[in-house]
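Q: I have 277 residues here and want to know how they pack in 3D. Can you give me a structure?
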Amino acid sequence: MNNRQARLFAIGSTAFAAILFLGMTLDSHRQFPTLTNADKITPEVIHGKDVWHKYNCINCHTLFGEGAYYAPDLTKITQHRGEAYLHAYMRDPSKFYDENKHRRLMPKQDLSEKEIFDLVTFLGWVSEVDNQGWPPRPILVTGGFNQAATAVPSGEAAVTTLGDSGSDPRALGKKLFSTAVPTCMACHSLTPGADGAGPSLAGIVSRTETLLQSDDYQGEAKDVEAYLHESILHPSAHLVPGEMYSAGGTSFMPIGYADSLTDEQVNQLVAFLASLK
């Protein structure tokens, strides 16, 4: 290739890349209204975005990968936590953690009820945006699934060792624990004492057996498997004590698993949880 050919090749390559980039940019803008559900951008969503900026939430959290990595990414937070939990949490984060034990760093912002409602509405809109899997940062609590599920701790919190057999409902339930939407591991750990947005599930079987024999149980289940089934599909049937788990007679655990999981999948998840002795 001589100098003239090299120059023409460079000019042609640059022009082709520029045209390709321009075409992709125009195509992206064409899809934005659909990908972002632009028709759902209400005045509450807009005000919620202003609240997000007013209180500098981005200084600690990220949305779509933009912001600081000091605290969890909140792109899908409403799918993992639910609106009831977020409303209560924003009113007073200190009620959800023991600052001496968990080193809580979320400040109490003293938001008005209107600001809280609109901020949660904004985060709800954000969670519905088709971000095509970005950022790939799932919310995990202390002592998450990978740390505990394959180990067999001593004592009451022992976890039955499970194989990877595709026909074993416990193994399938083990997978669902980290892949169901909302994912269980976003709120629950399998490590004793590592409570997060939900209580640790280590030793859930022995605790449930004790609960079912007490006068404190408010649900209708008569055995461990029925209780676990009830807790997944009807979390408010029995409320776990503690302000961080419920308010006004309603559990903060997300509802909707009856729609997102099949009956068989629920049974598989129950089978796995029933192995957490």
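Q: Anything worth noting?
A: DSSP finds twelve helices and four strands in the chain. The longest helix spans residues 3-35.
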